[in-house]
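Good day; I would like, with your permission, to put a structural problem before you. I would ask you to consider whether the tokens describe a fold that such a sequence might reasonably adopt. The full record is reproduced below for your convenience:
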Amino acid sequence: MAFPVTRLRRLRRNPILRGMIAETTLSVDDLIMPLFVCPGTKVKNPINSMPGNYQLSVDLLVEECAVILATGVKSVLLFGIPEHKDEHGHVACEHNGIVQQAIHAIKARFGNELLIVADVCNCEYTTHGHCGTIVDGDVDNDLTLETLAAQSLSLAQAGADVIAPSDMMDGRVKKIREILDNNGFAQTPIMAYSAKYASGFYGPFREAAESTPKFGDRRSYQMNPANSDEAMREIALDIEEGADMVMVKPALSYLDIIRRCKDTFNMPIVAYSVSGEFSMIKAAAANGWIDEERIMMEVALSIKRAGADIIITYYAKEIAKVLSTPRP
């Protein structure tokens, strides 16, 4: 029936009723907080382009995890800033590497209270800033797989709950699944960065992780922002190779990819709301142009509405606080 018999505003007038019929819900259980760990003790280096985020030494990282847990968020994603780098990223595979140290410390303090997702890539660990071994001026796919597999095994041995390869090399999920399975980690899930685009939204992250490429760019391995069909092919291949969860990155400019992924694959979908998305909101709010809390929540809800089951966001703590605060 049409107006005036049908009045859709009837269901919007009462806030309790609005909540009852909300089609999309957001929970602290949906959130993962990214963290950056660096060498030293009592180190808290501000990340200028990401207000409120820091490079933290292991001791302070553990304290930050306590703060995160207190908000209700139960998962973190770890990135490492090593003391030394090399041409191939082999430092990432060391059993006493910076992320491995962080995993041990977090597990010693919190046990299984906190889910640890370990990012697997070489860009933070190579002297050139690319995601793998360079041969003739480009990343060699198959040589890089060897390092990624070794890094994954080392992180699993340290106690990582989830392995998250973010490199976009062909075949890396299969290689990682094989090395994990062959070494007693068949139960360790893989969260694959399956549709990771060559995006301009990563700028602040590169400051945070000290991973800006020294030459060229990453367009030969990260995806063209113009492509959607290719994303479905990438995701399908990762699932075939053994991925347990698949990710779309970035989130806000790729909501259509999240929706298409959700509609196409019967898989848990992760969306990474990246550093540039966070920093834009922070900058606009600092200038008084937007209501930060309102926009933060609207963006997170849009990502869930698009189909994401899990959201990686630098706003995880703030979102959790809003969700836990009674609303009038």
